[in-house]
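Batch job 17 of 40 flagged for manual review because the log was empty.
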Amino acid sequence: LPDGTIETIIAAAQSASNSSNLNQWSVIAITDPELKSEIAKTSRLGSKFGMGNPYIEQAPVFLLWIADMSRNNKISLVENETAQVLQYTDAFLMASIDTAIASQNAVVAAESLGLGIVYIGAMRNNAKEISVLLNLPDYSYVVFGMAVGKPDPTEVSRIRPRLSQNAVLHYNGYNKDRWLDEVTVYEKAFLEFREEIGLKNKSWQEAVRFSSNDLTYMEGRENLRTTLEERGFKLL
């Protein structure tokens, strides 16, 4: 990537809204090929899918987005204070949400520069091992990774279809049943998309059921709460 690209992307991220100006996120930019390879391997330890996240190793930079309350925790533990608010679930959510908001600003900046990104949620698969590998302080965890690079024009690519607004947009209250008809329409576009890019024939509802019912989908994320508690997040 051209010099200054990472700094430009992160400047855009820092322009995003953040709760009470608490600045509860950080980024680690991974450019070292060996470390990228180790992160990719660690993210798939015990995986039954065997994919290995090749995007991580192919991209020139891999950004790790960290919900980071470590700074604020240290600032708060003065004069015998307890930083008790940080023990609650809302504090954890606040840091995680702010991280996500900042990252999406970074995506817009990257794409405006002609770059492409891939979010990698697999950083939560083996969250404990990833934290050790990166030497993260307590009160921090990797929310997700982001591969950043120049898109390959020879690769088949297109935007995935989304549910219609009739399924996701509500006015003055939640319409509980309207989405049912919309899903039927969506399934057609979903199957056409998968066929066009050579994916296995599977409906959206089948994908939803698998992600909701089969623990193999989690690939280790079922242990995330234990790891978070060990890292200081009590989630009261």
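Reviewer: the log was empty due to a logging misconfiguration, but the result itself is present. The chain has a mean pLDDT of 91. Unflagging and moving on to job 18.
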